[in-house]
Amino acid sequence: MNHNAKRSVMFVALLLVAVLAFFVGTAVTSSTAQQAVVWPITTAQPANTAGAVLESEKAYSSIYNQIGPSVVSINVVATQSGGNNGIQNGQGQVVQGTGTGFVIDTNGDIVTNNHVVDGATRIEVNFFDGSIYRGTVVGVDPDSDLAVVKVDRAAADLHPVTLGDSDQAFIGEDVVAIGSPFGERWTLTTGVVSALNRDISSLGQFRIGSVIQTDAAINPGNSGGPLVNMKGEVIGVNAQILSESGTGSGVGFAIPSNLVKRVAQSLISNGAVSYSYLGISGGDMSLYTIEALKLPNNARGVVVNEVTAGGPAAQAGLHSAGNPTTVDGVDVPTSADIITAVNSTPVTSMESLISFLGSQTKPGDTVTLTVVRDGTQQISIPVTLTARPSGT
Question: What top-level class would CATH report for the domain 276-387?
């Protein structure tokens, strides 16, 4: 195996199609007396008639019928620059894609991924009962890869999901994903929570924390759909996969529902989201750092590699790593600030720091960092957080 092969983290997003035609209707005429028109609708999956049903099957079927009416399939026409799929229109390429979303209130607000509706010039929202509505973008947040789309539909015909507490998710918990993989609408896949507190890339400069990892099959078209626990609560928004082939490999990532709540509320109220900003780049503890700074082997924390000039951390007095020495061909700092806690909450990794700042703080808050400096001195540093710089 080529150990230099790169694994690609993919946005599970637009199944690009170069065709602009959407649906072809068939006209029906009749010479008989006019009658009231009755359109067929879909309300649930067909009842099982084959015999005994396992309890687990009943549970999955119940979740599907409970959540299905809340899930929507989203068709998008977008204008994008570059790439090989699509039709040139003089300003960019017109492409069509599919994604998923779910209803969060009776006002017609629907959560999906930012990358599903990015650049959209037309959004069609398909409901479980066969109804199709035009969608409009309420707001997008590249830093969380979330968006809110709105439809004009009667409240009585909307079925909001219940957003659960993603902090209560646990490794091994049974979950299901419902979405439109490869355009196959309302597909249910099953799995477990494989890991917690992952961080993944966003559409901006900053990473998304507290992410849920699952082995429930997720493929292109699942983006924006719900990850649901066996209580019928949405605990995440399916967003990315880790894959070498471009299809599901059992490593999928869902944006946590607690972040979804915050982002959706802010987008609906303000059209934008504001996050707190510390102003550092850093990484997890490594054996190189442990040995260079003569730390115990169980030392945990975030090594501050660089402090952004003029940022909150710099103004508070945090130091960039320095005085490097070369060990086995690798430059290793012998002087470094290591963040081990925020407001007495342990920081064991960059993932945990991102998660805390994203979920527990807002711009203007003052937090106290516990810092081990150069491996010998533990100090407390108060830092007043600002809003993330615009345009990054």
Answer: mainly beta
